[in-house]
Amino acid sequence: MMLDRPVALVTGASRGIGRACAVELARSGFDIAVNYLADEAGALETVRLVEQAGGRAVALQCDVSMYDAAKHLVQCSEELLGPIEVLVGNAGITRDALLIRMSEDDWDQVLDTNLKGVYNVTKWAVRSMARRRRGRIVNISSVVALRGNPGQANYAAAKAGIIGFTKSLAKEMARYGITANVVAPGYISTDMTENLPLDVKEAFKRQIPLGRPGTPADVAYAVAFLSSPQAGYITGQVLPVDGGLSSGLIL
Ligand code: NAD
Prior knowledge:
Helices cover about 50% and strands about 15% of the residues. By secondary structure, the protein is α/β, with parallel strands linked by helices. It has a single domain, classed as NAD(P)-binding Rossmann-like Domain (Rossmann fold), CATH 3.40.50.720. Strands 3-2-1-4-5-6-7 form a 7-stranded parallel β-sheet, with helices on both faces. The longest helix has 29 residues, at about 105-130. The model has no long low-confidence stretch (mean pLDDT about 95). The structure holds nicotinamide-adenine-dinucleotide.
């Protein structure tokens, strides 16, 4: 019987980077609350992989853009697995269009999911972290927040918002021993990027000094490090995981 494993809640964990974070955190000793929006089968596959990696896991449906639903998500996670020690704010979407063609709905959906979703879940999760005087928050932004990208003004705004939010939170929560950091992935091979036009994918690859797209595991290793005891003195930081894309290196 496994006792006293700390708990991590990973939003948007039915596939891609979220799933990789769930599995890597399980390997690091966490039980995992696997949040998903609609893909229950994907979430149950993540649960299976977490169990295979030695952790307990529950799949919890919740649209993180909904304030009350996010409160319920945190409550369910704590009731089923115990207090949340690590929160990974990973759920995200894109609705790409040049600004001139970007609808109000494209703007609202991307801001509501990527940025308000992070606010919603964090708002409820930090309460018990503050009471327990321990906790780690790792939010997933993007290099697009640092560089901008044509066709992604909504996404870049949301992901830049996550950086400002997390840096502020780091300062508010430091007195409770809670750290808050951002991981900013570059071009990672997932379902989100699979449907990009081939020429866009090739253009991205040419700009990556390490010469290849990242994998979900590349991002998950950084998230697991920032969630580990070894990262206890790191807070308010942005860690790009992008093969050098944002480093200013020109090959
Ligand atoms: P993905 O589309 O495979 O995964 C996103 C996950 O978020 C999905 O499981 C989806 O169901 C979930 N989700 C979407 N809306 C949700 C909602 N309202 N409530 C709960 N869950 C919701 O994409 P991914 O590439 O794995 O992206 C994961 C995160 O990494 C996202 O925040 C994305 O913006 C970010 N990111 C990805 C890349 C990349 O190149 N793939 C680069 C930078 C940042």
